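Researcher: Checking consistency across runs. Here is TetR/AcrR family transcriptional regulator again:
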Amino acid sequence: MKDEKETRKRLQKCALEEFLEKGFMKASLRSICKKAGVTTGALYFFFEDKDDLFVSLVKEPLAGVREAMEMHFLGEKQAMESGELLSGEVQEGEADDYRTTLNIVHELYRYRDRFRLLLEKSQGSSVEGAVDEVVRICEGHYRMLADMMQQHIGGERIEHDVIHWIAHMQIDVFVYAVTHIDTEEEAVRYMDRAVKYMVCGWYGMFGVTPDMMGSGDIV
């Protein structure tokens, strides 16, 4: 059993290197097996095919980030329904956004090579559209929040195209960090400014100005 676990980990380690170098479509199972010192038959004992091997590298890290996002979205939904997000406590909302962002950034940099694999090398795999799926989850959440804000504050309904852009921007903030910023410490500084920008922009769409944030004058 111990030998099987070690063989599986060795195959994944060699696969990660191969996929990062060549991408999913050009990666060679034969090359991976040769580097791992096993036969192709041994690989098929652990993984159904190349796609299954690729997915095994990104599945758990991606699930962890999605869970953190969905928990945060659930908290925002509950806060909106209870009136907390409409009571003027914008600063507390920003603090919660920042805490969630730090947790996600930590996970992204804990498994940075695997997220780079997903973002840059997954073309042709079954998880090629994973980022688009996360964007769709964000889009649904922001549509709900925007409609609830509009019902309480008034004004015109925010257009679908704007909500779609906001969802993309939310995810692109993290994508940029993983693909362009080398250290978690630098990414945290970048995220600090990004969160401030996004929070102010969100409330600004509804006519909430910085001097109103935390004043109790939103509704």
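Researcher: Does this match what you'd expect to see?
Model: One thing to look at in this run: Residues 1-47 form a domain with the Arc Repressor Mutant, subunit A fold (CATH 1.10.10.60).
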